[in-house]
Amino acid sequence: MANTDSVKVRVLSLNCWGIRYLSKQCPQRYAMIGDMLCKEEHDIVLLQEVWSEKDYLSLKKRLACSHPHSHYFKSGVIGSGLAIFSIHRIHDTFLFRYSLNGYPYMAHHGDWFGGKAVGMAVLNIGSLTANVYVTHLHAEYCRDKDSYLPHRVVQAWELQQFIRHTSAGADMVILGGDLNMHPEDLGNRLLRSYTGLQDAYLETAKFDGCEDGMTLIADNPFINKKELCPFEKGIRIDYILFKGSTKTDIYCDYMSTTKGSIPNHPFPYSDHEALTAGLRLETHTLTQSDRQPKIQDSAAGKLAALVDIVTEARTEVKVGLHCAEGMRYTATRTGVMGLALLVLELAIAAVPWLALGTEQPFPRTSFYLLAALCFAILLTTFLLYIFYTMELKALQGAEDQMRLAVGSLQEKLRGFPLAQPHNAPRRPPEGHEPSALAPEE
Amino acid sequence: MANTDSVKVRVLSLNCWGIRYLSKQCPQRYAMIGDMLCKEEHDIVLLQEVWSEKDYLSLKKRLACSHPHSHYFKSGVIGSGLAIFSIHRIHDTFLFRYSLNGYPYMAHHGDWFGGKAVGMAVLNIGSLTANVYVTHLHAEYCRDKDSYLPHRVVQAWELQQFIRHTSAGADMVILGGDLNMHPEDLGNRLLRSYTGLQDAYLETAKFDGCEDGMTLIADNPFINKKELCPFEKGIRIDYILFKGSTKTDIYCDYMSTTKGSIPNHPFPYSDHEALTAGLRLETHTLTQSDRQPKIQDSAAGKLAALVDIVTEARTEVKVGLHCAEGMRYTATRTGVMGLALLVLELAIAAVPWLALGTEQPFPRTSFYLLAALCFAILLTTFLLYIFYTMELKALQGAEDQMRLAVGSLQEKLRGFPLAQPHNAPRRPPEGHEPSALAPEE
């Protein structure tokens, strides 16, 4: 193996918390962010929650000199909020909208309207191709009773599928974003172990930032400390992940996060901390013998671990399926009751009408009010029925794909001479060391 | 270049027209399709419009021996209708839902409820990896005044993006499906020229089937001849497309279609004709000199043609944007009128209420009816507003990506010593020979 080339790439990821008129000090913070990006000149800047296109356009104007290439990913009602700025030319972009993303009637959570997605940009860095991904998964509003967990697990599943299938031709894969998952959460394990992506915080040679790499911290003045409970100091939910290819090795030389305040500024950039990673890419001329044995060594163990994780994800999706079925059943039942009420009302009103000449005993006002109520129930439950059916289809689809994936992984596992017996990989996943899943780029 | 291996793959694609209780002779036709597939033993079977999962499951049962591997792609309210059966093991599947797909209130067209998508399955055929895609684009209900054209163009755009980005690791790419586009329609040119996919009908060594490869023909008893007008004999809208890779060359040895009737059966399999293609894959050991000059030769011309096609697609998407903006404006205006009416009504009712003791002159029944009408208008226009905003975002997103793609293509074009001047590729696309776009696998 002969190293022939070394390329350095500085990446920033930041959730900008850019809800116009609602987020605190929004215009001032965008101005600060613009100044910082212009000065720091990161190679790649991955932003989330840039909800307003106007804010993106003003950032684009501000960064015209430092980052001439950029893309804003549009999706949903409001937009995906995802933006990418780059020093290197963006050759191609692609957007994948997650099939599940909360509920439209949970308007105060707003995730559904955002049309959450993963955006991809293909960049040429020197002679190398980099696939850069930016995403923002569904928020976790209550960790103890997280009704959005199946949705987030399906998003993580689709994210790993998207990255895995679109990155075959890339020399370098970088994912930045607010995953709304703790480091060892199911979705995160699924994503990392299936794609082989490495966590910059875990891999970095040097680190300067918040304790445990936290990105949502109690010391940030925009944070409501009560909402962090029981994680008093904070949580790590924003990530920069990366991997190389068979042609390249990639290393994280340093990583840093902001620490809740910015020197000489009255407030921080956002309620999330900004992440910066310094990556180094080493190109090597690959000989067949270089890589083959290295992969073989731990492949069986990794596959077995992956089978466990996917099985765990399937269980979570099944829980979601069960809930969605329940909700659809409730909607159906309410709709049927609305219909029955309407029929009953019409029957009562029809009796005196059939017995000609009899005075109508049903007060007109009540009649119309009741009818309007019935129609409102019917319409609402019909819309809910359609929505829950779509949710069910998406969950079932993910579950089918996971089942197929488990089968295929087990098939591969059987091919290994040292593999454990068929049913062994199905042991409970608690026993795993996360390091067993770590890829070996 | 030394040929080392040859693999043969037989592919079938069929739009099954499987709307339970509505499509004519649906159960009988499914039985016929099952018998035929079981007997013919195609390597890969790509089905569209299998709207009911029950029908998929009964087919799966019927084909358990001949096609042990299968997948049904779930999406939308009803389902995507896409299914794949395979003799070879399916290792992985992935579904991409198109961002645009008609309008939910056009319920009689039904496309929105189908949740149109492209399904991908990764198969191992011997030592080769095949990426197999199945899709069904939005129907064309009126060719002269096709209000769905921007939606279909965006679907074709997303289809080519999906195939291009997910097929980098594949030795063989096969796409089968009902594209609802004539051979030289914009979306079809976009798809073929961007991905380099070849049309089996145009490339086949032998052909046995309908005139001009038509797949929706007047001779099919399920076809309403009036709907085909002005194409009296029929149209070609179903396709099998394919390409190899740098490691493989692919050829179509033969192709056939059914011809509107099936010997010894009272009616055909569907209102569409079934397509069968015999593909042959030749693996070769690639030396750098093999491919490089061949690609260079016509690359500039192809790029210029591609710039034209993407520019044409952008124009079409802009037309769609203009329409969607108009629709959203109409919805907003109607909503504002509904609100004004409600305010006016409340004002009229409030006057005698404020002047205490005066008799209420507004008849109660009319009052409630009018109020209900206002609320209905407000709700409907609100939902339409949200829907059109999502349509706008999706169209704008596609337009942005196309603009970026054109820029990137023109940049590449400048790199060619023999390239035409900068503005030359923007000449009207009518002058192109389709053969200029044909890839050179």
UniProtKB/TrEMBL annotation, chains A, B:
SUPFAM superfamilies linked to this entry: DNase I-like (SSF56219)
Alphabetical keyword list: Hydrolase, Lipid metabolism, Magnesium, Membrane, Metal-binding, Sphingolipid metabolism, Transmembrane, Transmembrane helix
InterPro entries reported in the protein's UniProt record: Endo/exonu/phosph_ase_sf, Endo/exonuclease/phosphatase, Sph/SMPD2-like
Pathway annotation from the record: Lipid metabolism; sphingolipid metabolism; Sphingolipid metabolism
Catalysed reaction equations from the record: 1-hexadecanoyl-sn-glycero-3-phosphocholine + H2O = 1-hexadecanoyl-sn-glycerol + phosphocholine + H(+); 1-O-hexadecyl-sn-glycero-3-phosphocholine + H2O = 1-O-hexadecyl-sn-glycerol + phosphocholine + H(+); a sphingosylphosphocholine + H2O = a sphingoid base + phosphocholine + H(+); 1-O-octadecyl-sn-glycero-3-phosphocholine + H2O = 1-O-octadecyl-sn-glycerol + phosphocholine + H(+)
UniProt family annotation: Belongs to the neutral sphingomyelinase family.
Endonuclease/exonuclease/phosphatase domain ranges (all copies): 12-272
EC number: 3.1.4.12
UniProt protein name: Sphingomyelin phosphodiesterase 2
Top EC category: hydrolase
A single cellular component GO annotation: membrane
Primary localization: membrane
Keyword match Transit peptide: no
Topology in membrane: Multi-pass membrane protein
Highest rank taxon of the organism: Eukaryota
Chain intervals for the UniProt region annotation (Disordered): 418-441
TM helices/strands, residue ranges: 336-355, 367-388
Cofactor: Mg(2+)
Keyword S-adenosyl-L-methionine (UniProt): no
UniProt GO BP: sphingolipid metabolic process
GO molecular function, one term: metal ion binding
Subcellular location: Membrane
